[in-house]
Amino acid sequence: MDFSSTAVGIASVAAIVVFIYAGVHIAVALGLISFVGVLLLKGSFELALNLFGLAIADSVSDEAFATVPLFVMMGLVVSRCGLGRDVYEFANDLFERMRGGLGIATVAANAIFAAVTGSSIASASVFAKVAIPEMMRYRYGKRFAVGIVAGSSVLGMIIPPSVMLIIYAVVTEQSVGAMFLAGVFPGVLLAVAFCGAIVLFALIAPRFVGGEPTGAARPAAGKLLRDAVVKLGPVLLLVSVVLGGIYGGILTPVESGAAGTVVAAILGLVKGRLNVKAVWGALVETGHITANILFLIIAASIYSRMLGIAGLPTMFGEWLTAIDMSFVGFMVLYVLLLLALGTIIDTASIILIVVPLFLPALQPFDINLVWFGIITVVGAEIGLLTPPFGISCFVIKATVDDPSVTLNDVFMGALPFAAVMLLVLVLLIVFPQISLALL
Predict the structure, then answer these.
(1) Residues near 431 by Cβ (< 8 Å), separated by ≥ 6?
(2) 153 with 124: CB under 8 angstroms?
(3) What is the pLDDT of residue 369?
């Protein structure tokens, strides 16, 4: 039986959506549908099998992918060393006397922590344990407390080094260093926007924010300086090694990931917070996370090749050209798709599924692929805060040891910060130079 290439391509996209809603693992869905698609298009079981082999070999042999396990390992070691708690305590000393100050401290600490972890999940789990109990103790609104932790946790995927930016760089064959540079200003802008939103919420919705003065005296300059060295110094050292090594041309992204992991381990040993059990746990978890991401990348590589055989990306680009869609219309369509997919699947899956489909359609608009990557990651990250998927919200609910905090509280608390993210996304689209200024 002959099958139309277009029909198979469209059917494969529809099947992906069905499988996702049915709860099938993304990588399994992508691999299975791609295999069947090639089988229908070429009628050869051997050819479909060879495609699997080529996709696996190409994915595993890409040197840029080696950055993923190294940065994941570094983030896990940093988390186990308690550096997140140190950063939060220092930020808390600076901002606790302001209305909403503990929320601002959480954002500031998360922004710094993001620069050494690159993971939203790590940030969400650390600050759910550190920041939420502290804010609840000073009678902050519980929805505000969980919402600001959920919202600021996404900074880990935008501020470099970011695992999502690495995955996007691999998929689109862009420089990892360029992606990291492009993520600096958008990450800082988002952190500033969160802090501004907290100040605004404290003025117009004081019951939502809650809180009361801590009564603590302003720390002496000497104590702040000492804490900056003891609590903030190790993190800044780590940031200098990782990002300074890349941007200074001393280390490749792979080498900086390895150097960062070693430095993080040394800091943990010096502080007496890292033992054999913690290192082994970090290694095992790194293996699990890396295997999951690698499985996704392999399956997505097979899927993009199947779509190429079906001619769907080319057809999609020609359709956009034929209807003479404007740049604004194209970006609105793309962002709406990111927001919709973000409610059901994780950011890595969105990048791996959507980006190959849209790449051919970018040519008529002369879109910078580095800028497009920032837009993709920020747009997809909004989904971390929205139901029904909202993985950061689920992590916080699972981590918070307070039965009075429901999953609905977490989602409702995160909603205003998802709106702030959407506003920042619009600014990044309207002003591309925000992302490209350092390139």
Answers:
(1) none
(2) yes
(3) 95
At 413, which amino acid appears?
G
Here the tokens at position 84 are 């997140």
Tokens 């800082």 found at: 188
Residue 275 has φ and ψ, to the nearest 5°, of: -125, 180
User: What is the per-residue pLDDT across 40-63, written as a single tens digit (0 to 9) for each?
Assistant: 888 788 888 887 787 777 766 767
The string over 255-272, giving b where at least 16 C-beta atoms fall within 10 Å of a residue's C-beta and e elsewhere, is ebbbbbbebbbbbbeeee
Q: How far apart are the first and last CA of the chain?
A: 52
CA pair distance 300, 172, nearest whole angstrom: 12
* Half-sphere exposure in the Cβ direction for 340 (13 Å, CA): 10
Cα 311 from Cα 37, distance rounded (Å)? 12
Residue 402 C-beta-side C-alpha neighbours within 13 Å: 21
The 8-class DSSP code of residue 219 comes to P
Please name which of 82, 59, 65 lies closest in space to residue 130, comparing C-alpha atoms.
82
Q: What is the pLDDT of residues 358-381, one digit of tens each?
A: 888 887 788 999 999 999 999 988
210 forms beta bridges with: 140
A 10 A CB-CB count for 388 gives: 9
Chain centroid to Cα 328, Å, comes to 25
Q: Please tell me what DSSP assigns to residue 273.
A: -
In the chain, what are the domain boundaries? 5-436
Q: Where are the beta strands (DSSP E) in 318-434?
A: none
The residue count of the chain comes to 439
Other C-beta atoms lying within 10 Å of the C-beta of residue 432: 17
What residue ranges of the chain have pLDDT lower than 50? Answer: 1-2
Q: What secondary structure letter does DSSP report for 210?
A: B
Distance CA 234, CA 115 (A): 12
Two tokens, residue 322: 């034929």
Closest CA to 73 of 285, 294, 267, 292: 285
CA atoms within 13 A on the CB side of 301: 22
Distance separating alpha carbons of residues 386 and 372, to the nearest angstrom: 22
Cα 75 from Cα 123, distance rounded (Å)? 9
Among 334, 384, 309, CA closest to 123: 384
How is residue 91 written in tokens? 């930020």
pLDDT of residue 213: 58
DSSP structure class, residue 156: G
Q: 391 Cβ partners below 8 Å, 6+ apart? A: 120, 121, 346, 384
Q: pTM above 0.85?
A: no
